[in-house]
Amino acid sequence: MTAPEIFDRRLRRARRDRAMPGYAAHDFLRAFMLEGLQDRLAMVRRPFLDVLDIGAFAGGVATPPGAHVARLDAGFRFARTVGGVQGDEDRLPFADGAFDLVISAGVLDTVNDLPGALSLARRVLRPDGLFLAAFLGAGSLATLRACLREPESDRPVARLHPQVDVRAAGDLLMRAGFALPVADTETLNVRYRSLTGLLADLRGMGATNLMPVRSALGRATLARAEAAFAERADADGRTTEHFDILFLTGWAPDASQPKPARRGSATASLAAALKPPG
């Protein structure tokens, strides 16, 4: 029996196509992710020759000089813009061991099968290949969530996507078979003059509700949500929204990588090391 899908694949492709023409005006969140990924990549002192960009949007991933780059996006218009392949992240159309670097920014939070997508990312990597990813994690859009909940407190409606926290992300990396997994978070705070501005950014990113069962946001509910958003404004009349970005790093296993020490192989006692002198 096939498990029900969390996100509507057809709608996801359509929303990305709709967002493509004006995406440059709303790409600040992915730009933040790309900067963080580039910082992490800069710490790795080794060449990468074959790179896969998963969730290419309109480009922007800085890749090593001379590397061959393949790009994939779920939206046809984004894929065509960057000369890439249209496809879903949990259904990668690439051969095992085809790349030594896989980068993904801003898409894995809306993949139906995230464990499967991570497993596929590992499979397309060569031994000792590097995986770097960033996407919205748990805690993001807390203000929007609260403002939408207030008008519907009697009968709350699921309007925001489920989110992955940093501990679960680390577990998923290990389950996917990555070596030396690391998951960490960074927070980006953005101040808005109105709820309308926040919703416009989310539409411009293609990041509005993609769940199969959706309920229209009525005018009265929207008006109350806008009022709740305005009530949270600071002295400058702006309300802060939080975007918590998950950054994932993992390596395809290889015999050359450091291994954890065998249990019981320590030559010194931790209790002795922690014992105060004297």
Architecture overview:
It is a single chain. With 278 residues, the chain is an alpha/beta fold. It has helices at residues 9-19, 28-42, 76-81, 114-123, 142-149, 166-175, 195-205, 219-231, 270-274, and strands at 50-54, 68-73, 85-86, 99-105, 125-136, 179-192, 239-251. A 7-stranded mixed beta sheet has the order 3-2-1-4-5-7-6, with helices on both faces. α5 packs across α8. The model has no long low-confidence stretch (mean pLDDT 90).
How does the SSE layout of this entry go?
Blueprint: H1 9-19, H2 28-42, E1 50-54, E2 68-73, H3 76-81, E3 85-86, E4 99-105, H4 114-123, E5 125-136, H5 142-149, H6 166-175, E6 179-192, H7 195-205, H8 219-231, E7 239-251, H9 270-274
Parallel strand pairs: 1-2, 1-4, 2-3, 4-5
Antiparallel strand pairs: 5-7, 6-7
Helix pairs in contact: 5-8
- Which segments are poorly predicted (pLDDT under 50) over 5 or more consecutive residues? none
Overall pLDDT: 90
State which percent range the strand residues make up. 15-25%
Give the beta-strand count: 7
Radius of gyration: 21 Å
Query: Major sheet: size, sense and barrel closure?
Result: 7 strands, mixed
Distance between the termini: 65 Å
- Going by helix content, strand content and strand pairing, the class is alpha/beta
Shape: globular
SSE pattern: HHEEHEEHEHHEHHEH
Summary keywords:
single chain, 278 residues, alpha/beta, seven-stranded mixed beta sheet, 9 helices, 32% helix, globular
Quick take:
The protein has 9 helices and 7 strands.
